[in-house]
Recover the amino acids of this structure.
């Protein structure tokens, strides 16, 4: 169990986290959740290291992109994916700064989501 | 002359001399006209007046040949006053006592008329005394009296008149000389007289001032005192003026049919630099005075006048160019409301050409006063300026168009109004554009709203979608378990214990494989959560339906709390991450209104509040508070936020159409202006208070009994055609 890579799911909507857990429970990753950016950064400061972060954008406090920019600065080894229904207002330049590997829209396609996380895990 | 004629008539009547005796006059061939004589003789008539003249004197005067006017004096005072009149020709003392004659002679001023004393007989003593007392001559009352007296009298009168004439002429000449000297000296023009050789004969002080002498030793002077001036004109005048003078001296340059033989031209001296001081303009007049070749030259410095006249001309030209070419129509209206001037732009709108609008009444285009605002009429009546008022005007082709108009009274020097200058513009195109932009604004806010709603629906849709997918997998797992239990059931019916055991173990294995416990409980959880998501979507759709119920074509009773709450619920979906929404609603009476339009206002205010909160540096959620209550017959809706606030400098302009502080493309600048119009149409008002860094409070007040005049439903064209108020 301990050597399974850690996937951190960040969303302010508990039902969303619940559905994501359900979808990804059998992929062989350790699933952890946080309901906002600062909570997620606190988790990332602990061990074991978070390998991949999947984050919503619209959240109270810092936005998903702001969180991912900070996450990249503090944990360059982590990989980042944005999952949001509100992607049109995010600027390309910010996405680049956050080093986001994939931007996925809600509602997502299960296979697409799993594939994106898998390829992030393999990097 | 006419006066003299009347004297003659009177004199003839009063004269005791019959006209028949005039023929025997000792004529000198010279007629003197009416001779005015004061006669003094002794004695009184019974009424206290002077006694009648003696028959002899009367006869003698009748022989003069000229009409005579006799005036009488009895004492010194009368005599002094009569002889002060310069038209009195002579005083005749007719045989008075010597002492009386001497006394009376003293009453005549030394420069008064001559006097003749008639003495009795050959009394040399009396005559001597008379001469001593100042008499001009003496005549003896003897046999030749009636022949001698006229001769002596005429001689005295002629001499007196000649003396007087010379005196008057001398005075006149003196006066003319003084006048001439005064004019020459004080004239604001340089005068100079030159001879044929160009030597200055005379000059006046102004000439000296304009063109000072080159040598201090040479005095300047007035005509007559010009001795010693030996300067030549060429030494004093600038070359340009000298050239003009030389041209003037050419005989052919003097028009032969000009009896005065003079020349008048403007001469420019110096360079035309930036400052008009460098270039001077002189007005030169040249007149040949006499055959000796002397000429009078008059030179005035008219630089300032020329400069002013140039400026005036260019100003006039510029003004005309501007008035002719501006796109704004400009008309001048007199006090009777008649057009006295219209520029081409005005003619295009009013339908006239080449000034044929002049004299027509402005009522021909502007509706009768009372129906629509009438700024020109108001300006004529009140004399007050107005700026940018909007009204309607019937164009030359009969079509009514909206115009923006500014009026100023035309005041004369004493401040009395002479009429009005009005400048106006056709606003049709602007109104059309404004309408289009308002439509765009509406679409933009609908788009914003749709995006917010889509996002809000997206979230539950996202997890419902995922859950559905997962539940179908759970179902596949449960199918496996179900098949294993069916096999166990069959084995049990067959009764082979080994087979039963194996089937039971298989059921257990499948349960383990599919994590039956988890699947069972999570299936239920997924179902519950999906149900919850579906419920949330149902709510959003209901809010949307509540919010978007279209207005009826007339006012309908509206629940303002419901209107603002449904709006808040919709708008909140897109701001819930950064905003805490507080609601404090109180019971309100229903009012007749257009609920959809009110919702548009509330949406504008809530979206602005949200943007003000988003614009802050802090990441903590801001607060938007909505309060409703009934206050003194009005419904008060207060929407406050803890956003960045509105700077004082722009606060007065936020209700103006097209005013926006947002970046280009982010706002049309019509949200608050549209809100203002809508609230005004409901008979209410909208106010703002704000503090930079603290937040903003908008207050909307709506009367519980709305105005009767009903504006057409959602007809923004009609709304825009009305005068559009702006806060200022």
């Amino acid at each position: 169990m301990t050597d399974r890579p850690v996937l951190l799911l960040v969303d302010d909507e508990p039902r969303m986290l619940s559905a994501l857990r359900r979808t990804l429970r059998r992929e062989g990753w350790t699933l952890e959740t946080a309901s906002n950016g600062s909570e997620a950064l606190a988790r990332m400061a602990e061990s074991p290291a978070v390998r991949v972060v999947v984050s919503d954008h619209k959240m109270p406090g810092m936005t998903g992109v702001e969180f991912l920019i900070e996450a990249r600065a503090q944990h360059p080894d982590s990989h980042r994916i944005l999952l949001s229904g509100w992607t049109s207002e995010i600027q390309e330049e910010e996405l680049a700064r956050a080093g986001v590997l994939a931007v996925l829209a809600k509602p997502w396609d299960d296979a697409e989501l799993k594939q994106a996380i898998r390829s992030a895990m393999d990097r | 002359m006419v006066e003299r004629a009347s004297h003659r008539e009177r004199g003839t009547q009063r004269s005791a001399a019959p006209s028949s005796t005039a023929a025997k006059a000792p004529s000198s061939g010279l007629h003197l006209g009416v001779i005015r004589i004061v006669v003094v003789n002794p004695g009184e008539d019974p009424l206290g007046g002077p006694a009648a003249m003696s028959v002899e004197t009367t006869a003698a005067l009748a022989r003069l040949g000229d009409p005579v006017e006799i005036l009488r004096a009895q004492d010194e005072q009368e005599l002094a006053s009569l002889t002060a009149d310069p038209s009195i020709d002579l005083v005749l003392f007719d045989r008075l006592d010597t002492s009386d004659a001497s006394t009376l002679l003293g009453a005549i001023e030394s420069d008064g008329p001559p006097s003749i004393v008639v003495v009795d007989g050959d009394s040399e003593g009396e005559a001597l005394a008379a001469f001593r007392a100042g008499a001009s001559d003496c005549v003896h009352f003897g046999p030749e009296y009636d022949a001698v007296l006229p001769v002596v009298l005429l001689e005295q009168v002629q001499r007196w008149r000649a003396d007087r004439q010379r005196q008057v002429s001398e005075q006149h000449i003196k006066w003319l000389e003084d006048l001439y000297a005064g004019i020459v000296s004080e004239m604001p023009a340089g005068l100079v007289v030159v001879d044929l050789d160009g030597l200055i004969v005379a000059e006046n002080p102004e000439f000296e001032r304009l063109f000072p002498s080159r040598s201090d030793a040479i005095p300047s002077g007035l005509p007559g005192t010009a001795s010693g001036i030996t300067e030549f004109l060429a030494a004093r005048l600038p070359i340009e003026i000298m050239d003009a003078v030389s041209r003037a001296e050419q005989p052919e340059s003097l028009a032969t049919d000009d009896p005065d033989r003079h020349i008048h031209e403007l001469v420019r001296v110096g360079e035309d630099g930036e400052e008009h001081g460098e270039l001077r303009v002189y007005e030169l007049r040249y007149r040949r005075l006499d055959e000796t070749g002397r000429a009078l030259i008059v030179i005035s410095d008219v630089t300032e006048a020329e400069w002013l006249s140039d400026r005036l001309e260019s100003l006039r030209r510029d003004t005309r160019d501007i008035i002719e070419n501006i796109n704004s129509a400009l008309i001048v209206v007199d006090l009777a409301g008649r057009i006295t001037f219209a520029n081409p732009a005005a003619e295009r709108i009013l339908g006239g050409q080449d000034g044929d609008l002049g004299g027509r009444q402005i009522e021909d285009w502007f509706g009768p006063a009372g129906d629509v605002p009438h700024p020109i009429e108001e300006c004529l009546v009140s004399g007050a300026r107005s700026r940018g008022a909007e009204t309607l005007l019937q164009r030359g082709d009969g079509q009514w168009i909206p115009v923006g108009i500014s009026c100023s009274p035309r005041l004369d020097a004493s401040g009395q109004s002479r009429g009005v200058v009005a400048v106006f513009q056709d606003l049709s195109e602007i109104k059309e554009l404004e309408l289009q932009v308002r439509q765009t604004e509406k679409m933009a806010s609908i788009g914003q709203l749709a995006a917010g709603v889509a996002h809000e629906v997206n979230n539950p849709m996202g997890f419902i979608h995922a859950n559905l997918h997962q539940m179908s997998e759970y179902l596949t797992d449960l199918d496996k378990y179900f098949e294993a239990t069916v096999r166990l059931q069959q084995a049990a019916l067959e009764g082979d214990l080994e087979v039963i055991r194996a089937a039971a173990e298989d059921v257990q294995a499948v349960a383990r494989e599919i994590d039956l416990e988890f699947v069972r409980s999570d299936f239920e959880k997924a179902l519950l959560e999906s149900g919850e998501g579906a419920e949330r979507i149902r709510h959003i759709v209901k809010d949307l339906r509540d919010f978007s119920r279209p207005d009826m074509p007339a006012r309908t009773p509206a629940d303002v709390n419901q209107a603002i709450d449904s709006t808040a619920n919709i708008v909140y979906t897109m701001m819930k991450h950064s905003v805490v929404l507080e609601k404090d609603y109180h019971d309100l009476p229903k009012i007749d209104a257009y609920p959809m339009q009110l919702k548009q206002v509330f949406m504008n205010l809530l979206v602005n509040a949200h943007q003000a909160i988003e614009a802050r540096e802090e990441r903590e959620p801001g607060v938007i508070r909505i309060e409703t209550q009934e206050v003194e017959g009005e419904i008060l809706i207060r929407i406050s936020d803890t956003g960045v606030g509105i700077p004082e400098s722009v606060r007065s302009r936020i209700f103006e159409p097209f005013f926006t502080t947002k970046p280009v493309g982010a706002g049309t600048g019509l949200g608050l202006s549209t809100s203002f119009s809508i609230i005004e149409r409901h008979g209410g008002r909208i106010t703002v208070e704000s503090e930079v860094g603290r937040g903003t409070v908008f207050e909307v007040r709506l009367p519980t009994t709305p105005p009767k005049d009903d504006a057409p439903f959602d007809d923004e064209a009609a709304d825009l055609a009305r005068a559009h108020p702006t806060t200022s």
Observations:
- The domain at 6-121 of chain A is CATH 3.40.50.2300 (Rossmann fold).
- Chain A touches chain B at residues 12-13, 15-16, 18-20, 22-23, 58-62, 85-86, 88, 106-108, 110 (CB under 8 Å).
